[in-house]
Design a protein that fits this description.
Number of domains: 3
Structural class: alpha+beta
CATH class of the largest domain: Mainly Beta
Number of strands: 38
CATH architecture of the largest domain: Distorted Sandwich
């Protein structure tokens, strides 16, 4: 078994941690987290495997069954027995290529359980549990064996049986997308959900159920088990023929993850998902660089421009150069250009897109060269319309073109029904396609921003060129739908963002855009748009509005200054669906973003995280006293004050509002000015 899974165990073997037997009884074993609070118990009851989880002696997951059902074979969830179990400890600190912190501690205790059927065909299955201080991960391994070679999984029997009718924030199960508003209900009101699902227990714990390292497997949704209250079962996205997973031994599933926290902010600070992924697979990562970018994008959603040809075509050489001029003048390092390549006029009609040929009014090489002269790189764009065979036929030549031109990043899109017919965005076939794109992009030194993606599961650790992805009801919905209500961005940090970075596309300054769509608007104040650059994490962060709306705006300086890569992250206060305040550090500077829902707030923010004995200048971009997202969204007060680590800031947030702060070491001149 180890020969097929060296990547899982190699680091632990190198560190030579003590291996010891974990068996306590013939049919029950357990493992406890390093701090002793998270306790995982595994049992065999009448040949059926079950697990349970408790935190600080409180039941989190009641005994929940495990196993598989195969096509044309007996289920692998009955008549099992433990043939061997062992335990290991692991503790390392690793350095991400980029992220919300410059170092990540990976500290857990691991329980490996080897199971075998007591009757023919005597198949074997291994289950690995990892107990962290902030939660649990577990996965199945089907080792190479004579009685199980090629297999087809019809059902994964993993269950999550909660102890009570907790409340949850969730979106409905959807095999094609995640672009829904979050609902807040009790567990008993849920039929089926996409993950992550975030839960608040009756005891005041916070949980998030998701998965990590989704590789060569179907995406997992959860469906309610009707005959067992407060219980949800893994429901895998199917192939067209109804099979969920097609594979051969040896094979391993993604990790099923249960994040556990005593407060909602600790969910955001957790690194459980990335820790359960393999280390970086790329030898050279020097070409991977987080950055902000502008785009000929928002104008398309509002109707100012079109992706397709015609009098309002957005991706023209002339228009691209205007955007480049602005980006260069104001220090924006990149420009995304959508609609440049042939095919948009026939989108969704099959074999539409040519990823090598520009429209006649756009000269790709000329635009790239112009950007290079101005210090602005171009971000490429490949919208597939869901036509996967056409894209895969061209992908090498299209990626080669971008590498040749010096284009460092690419936004992919999969809007539309997947071709071939019957495949789903989140099924195994597409999971493998998304991964192939990331791996191939690495060969051509391309960073990826995926839209209409498979959900993040931490693969950015292994392939750090997988920078960000959509997978959320983002800013564009404000342009042409009923919009995202003020509470939406106070929920997604605790739900979708727990899975990984998201391309929400903040930074709209013309919040009503009456010139283009009088019946639509943004449900925030201007100060909240600034705060979103800190609250909503993405290493590729869009500066989404039209250039003209940033001109002569003193608030634009915060967007110019705010980084996209961080050394440290702290959640200072939080209540899911109501408000959140996050502080992030880059070098010696700290940036704070605080946002609220439709209600005004007064929040206290202690600056104890600053270095002791130092003075700092805080540049504060706050909702003015008369600000309100409905009637007066543009009113912002900009102030500067000296602060130190003993100070507490009092934040006044308007309805639908926010506050953004840059804190940097004070200069001698600034200190003298205050003393004088």
């Amino acid at each position: 078994m180890r020969s097929g899974f060296n990547l899982i165990f190699s680091t632990m073997l190198m560190l030579a941690f003590l291996m010891c037997s974990a068996s306590k009884t013939k049919n029950a074993v357990s493992v406890v987290s390093p701090d002793g609070k998270v306790d995982v118990n595994f049992t065999i009851q009448d040949g059926v495997p079950y697990y349970s989880v408790s935190y600080d002696a409180k039941i989190v997951i009641q005994p929940s069954r495990l196993g598989f059902r195969f096509k044309s074979a007996t289920p692998m969830e009955e008549k099992l027995s433990i043939i061997e179990s062992s335990q290991k400890s692991f503790n390392e600190t690793w350095k991400p290529v980029w992220g919300t912190t410059d170092k990540v501690r990976n500290h857990y205790k691991e329980l490996i359980i080897k199971l075998k059927e007591k009757t023919p065909p005597n198949r074997q299955m291994h289950i690995i549990f990892r107990a962290y201080n902030d939660g649990v991960g577990f996965r199945y391994i089907l080792p190479e064996q004579p009685n199980l070679k090629d297999f087809e999984i019809m059902s994964e029997e993993t269950q999550f049986c909660f102890a009570d009718n907790h409340t949850a924030w969730w979106i409905p199960s959807d095999y094609e997308g995640y672009e829904h508003l979050y609902r807040h209900t009790s567990l008993s009101e849920i039929e089926a959900v996409n993950t992550p699902i975030t839960i608040e227990t009756q005891e005041g714990l916070y949980l998030s159920i998701h998965e990590a390292d989704l590789t060569d497997y179907a995406g997992m949704t959860l469906s309610a088990v009707k005959e067992k209250q407060f219980t949800f079962k893994s429901e895998l996205v199917p192939w067209p023929d109804g099979v969920k997973v097609k594979a051969s031994t040896p094979h391993r599933t993604p990790w099923r993850t249960i994040q556990i926290a005593t407060n909602p902010g600790s969910l955001i600070e957790s690194h459980l998902i990335v820790n359960l992924n393999e280390p970086c697979a790329l030898e050279n990562t020097s070409w991977i660089k987080p950055m902000k970018y502008m785009g000929i994008w928002w104008g398309m959603h509002t109707g100012k421009y079109t992706w397709h040809t015609g009098p309002k075509h957005g991706a023209t050489t002339e228009n691209a150069k205007r955007y480049i001029d602005f980006a260069s003048k104001y220090g924006m390092p990149a420009l995304l250009i959508e609609g440049w390549n042939v095919g948009w006029d026939y989108w969704l009609k099959g074999h539409a897109f040519d990823f090598l040929t520009s429209y006649p009014d756009f000269d790709l090489e000329n635009v790239v060269q112009y950007g290079r002269e101005k210090g602005v790189v171009i971000i490429g764009h490949h919208e597939t319309g869901g036509d996967i065979p056409t894209y895969e036929e061209q992908i090498d030549s299209a990626f080669s073109l971008y590498e040749k031109l010096g284009i460092p990043a690419l936004k992919t899109g999969y809007a539309g029904t997947i071709v071939p017919e019957g495949q789903h965005h989140h099924g195994q076939w597409m999971v493998n396609h998304y991964r192939m794109v990331v791996q191939k992009a690495a060969e051509y030194h391309l960073m990826i921003d995926a839209h209409e993606p498979i959900k993040p599961t931490g693969i950015r650790r292994t392939y750090p060129n997988m920078m960000t992805r959509e997978g959320v009801r983002g800013m564009e919905y404000n342009a042409w739908s009923d919009g995202n209500p003020p509470e939406h961005t106070t929920i997604v940090p605790f739900t979708r963002m727990l899975a990984g970075p998201m391309d929400y596309t903040p930074g709209i300054f013309d919040l009503t855009f009456d010139e283009y769509r009088k019946d639509n608007r943004i449900y925030t104040t201007l100060a909240k748009q600034l705060a979103l650059y800190v609250v909503l994490y993405s290493p590729l962060q869009m500066v989404a509005d039209l250039p003209k709306n940033y001109k002569n705006q003193p608030t634009f300086k915060f967007i110019q200054d705010v980084p996209t890569d961080w050394d440290e992250t702290k959640v200072l206060n939080a209540k899911i669906g109501d408000y959140v305040t996050i502080a992030r550090k880059n070098d010696e500077n700290w940036y704070i973003g605080s946002i609220t829902d439709e209600n005004s707030r007064m929040l206290k923010v202690a600056l104890a995280f600053l270095d002791s004995g130092k003075k700092y200048t805080a540049s504060i971009y706050a909702d003015a006293s008369d600000a309100d997202w409905k009637d007066n969204p543009y009113s912002v007060d900009i102030t500067k004050v000296l602060v130190n680590n003993t100070d507490t800031l009092l934040m006044s947030l308007a309805p639908g509002g926010g506050q953004a702060i840059e804190i940097r070491p004070a200069t001698e001149e600034e200190i003298r000015a205050v003393l004088d």
